[in-house]
Queue: 2 jobs
Job 1
Amino acid sequence: MTLKIKFGTDGWRSAIADGYTFDNLRRCTQGFASYYLNEGKKGEWIVVGYDRRFLSEKFAQSAAEVLIGNGFRVYLTDGPTPTPVISYSVVAKKAAGAINITASHNPPTDDGFKVRDHTGGAIAPDGLKAIEALIPDDTTDIKIGSLAEAEKNGTLVRFDPAPAYLENIKKLVDLEPIRNAGFKVLVDPMWGNGSGWFPKLLAGGKTEIIEIHKERNPIFPEMLRPEPIPPNVDAGLKATTENNADVCIIFDGDADRLGVGDEHGEFINQLRVYALIAYYLLEVRGQRGAIVKTLSTTQMLNKLGKIYDVPVYETGVGFKYVAPKMIETNAIVGGEESGGYAFRNHVPERDGILAGLLVLDMMVKLNRKPSELIDLLFSKVGAHYYDRIDVKFTGNRKDREEKIMNANPKTIGGLKVLGLNSQDGFKFSLEDGGWLLIRFSGTEPVMRVYCETTHEECVQSILQDGMQIAGLA
């Protein structure tokens, strides 16, 4: 039976040699090509890039063949490339969009298919639905061109995407103070596309960059998956203390997400990192403008919005919602709970490399270690605590959703429930300004239970109540 390809939070992902086959990839690319043909884009350039997963370069070539067969011209990256660099290349090359072969943070068994529009940002939900609807049921009508012929006639160009991206980064961050700060920075690219970029950006000064997990290894040893959250970050945090480093910078497999560890080898969760970055942009850089956040991220942003008199917009989970809202509001920053942050004057796309540089710049400008930055943040907005549980999901999703909707709890974790938002999952607002969120992952068969609260002692009881409400306990 033909696989029905469905786009999740950020494109399509599946297990290699099971759902993710060359034929299914070509079907997906044909749907993308048909969508762009309907938009009148025939003959325009499309950027194609890929990550370090098993066979990703071959999958990228197959996608390029289908684009060529449909009358498009293709810029193909000359090696594994971070997602934000691929996205910036769309803008730098004035391309119509991009296809990115990556499964991001998924397990090593998977690969994926991300698409981007002319801004370098995620295609909005309506566009993704249109692409999905145009994916053919089989390979019969897929048009395939010759890469060799395309290279000869100039309709396929292999290119180095680094120079244009690095040039823009240098406009956004003054690198010299970071180079000369004398920091010892432990960088963990998680065997992925972020390898080599910090040494390239920060070489030549007093700051020392120590990289681990920098080779290509598609089985991702020392971690369950290349996702910058515990326990996957444990090896990097251990190396931080072993090397007496000042900070740990962690990228996910395609380097669009950032994880941070402090000077003690303690993980700083993604909600705190996002609040720190927003505080830095508002207080240190003096920027003003909207903040965009998904409903699964921190209320600290709302408190910062009130302090600095800037609007805060909340969207569904995924940059397919965040990117359009950033463009609409000219936001200074947009981000989500997964550790992805995007910035004004760049592209409306998560960029772990730029976000990591901003963390280092914050350390320079405020002359504080990472743990001291958290103390400073909490002095402004109060202490906030967060955790999440991921559980493999089986069974009927509608039955689960109905059970959650009808649960009607009066308290969660001992805190009074003030309301329920079912915009994307089920978000219960709590009396302390915190929340519990239960939602289905858009990229894999997982249910997530998350919470944030100002009461540290309530975190685990909130999560356990959430598991009961979801029927997972």
Note: The first helix runs from residue 22 to 38.
Job 2
Amino acid sequence: MSLSDAWKAILNQPVLIHLTTLNDDGSPSTSPVWVAVDGDDLIVNSAVGRLKDRNVRRDPRVAFSAVDPANDYHALMVQGRVVEISTEGADDQIDALAKKYLGKDKYPFRQPGEVRVNYRIRPEKVAGMG
């Protein structure tokens, strides 16, 4: 599945997505995250060892939703899969996301010893509202 060009344009704005991963007991865990669009895939960045990281390494199935900032009743819902997990380029990616979302050249919330990681999400089911 692919996202429409209209939704790609919306997601290229500083719009948070609400990403859901699956905990080891099967229960959902949802958190707001920054996102980048790369072709038909989405890139989410986190840190190695966090709950999101542990969850997607164990079970790559994810879901997310986003709301068009210009219309609260125009929403996107996606089910997909993490198809790649990589630390390569993750430091540059979090800095690019900090520029997009905060207007800062460098990610200001880095913790000592933190290892950044990118998750490439491939949409498998796409639905829209509005």
Note: The longest strand covers residues 116-129.
